[in-house]
């Protein structure tokens, strides 16, 4: 039998520089593999930190969403409690709009009526009609000027001759007689 030898045992003497180069190669390969493992470990640490930051951010967002949902629920409850009042406000607004339209119509009507009355006063005049009892003649007095101011209220002006008086109104179709009041001399009735 021959001596057993392993492949790791040198059968021949090796060159020492070759040993040095092989050792250098193994050291550098070990350093390379160690660097790769360190890099993978750092990547895992970075991923762990990112996951923790993302979890914290999502937790904050969950709290914010819960607060928003709670606030929205509170606002909906407040809106439902205010809804009858809002309906009343809408009804009041409709009533105010109708009242405003009625006021505009009334204003327009009063302006038309004022214009009609002014036009009547300008184009029609009133005449006083008196009967003289001593000689039976009819006395017609012309209308007073528009700027004439009457006597204070409650003071009766005496007539020289008193009987039933009427007013004659000059209308578009001629003279129109209207019944008047009785007037007596010295303001007595």
TrEMBL record:
One GO MF term attached to the UniProt entry: gamma-tubulin binding
Pfam annotation, one family: BLOC1_2
GO cellular component: BLOC-1 complex; BORC complex; gamma-tubulin complex
Coiled coil ranges: none
GO biological process, one term: endosomal transport
Superkingdom of origin organism: Eukaryota
Family, similarity comment: Belongs to the BLOC1S2 family.
UniProt name for this protein: Biogenesis of lysosome-related organelles complex 1 subunit 2
Organism the protein comes from: Allacma fusca
């Amino acid at each position: 039998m021959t001596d057993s030898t392993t492949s790791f045992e040198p059968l021949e003497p090796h060159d020492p520089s070759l040993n040095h180069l092989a050792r250098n190669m193994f050291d550098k390969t070990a350093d390379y593999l160690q660097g790769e493992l360190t890099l993978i470990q750092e990547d895992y640490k970075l991923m762990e930190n990112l996951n923790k930051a993302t979890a914290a951010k999502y937790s904050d967002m969950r709290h914010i969403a819960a607060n928003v949902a709670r606030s929205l629920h509170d606002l909906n409850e407040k809106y439902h409690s205010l809804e009858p009042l809002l309906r009343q406000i809408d009804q009041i607004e409709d009533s105010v709009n109708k009242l405003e339209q009625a006021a505009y119509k009334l204003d327009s009507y009063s302006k038309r009526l004022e214009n009609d009355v002014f036009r009547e006063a300008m184009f029609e005049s009133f005449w006083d009609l008196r009967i003289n009892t001593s000689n039976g003649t009819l006395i017609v007095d012309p209308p007073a000027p528009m700027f004439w101011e009457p006597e204070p209220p409650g003071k009766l002006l005496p007539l020289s001759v008193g009987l039933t008086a009427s007013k004659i109104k000059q209308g578009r179709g001629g003279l129109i007689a209207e019944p008047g009041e009785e007037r007596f001399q010295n303001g007595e009735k």
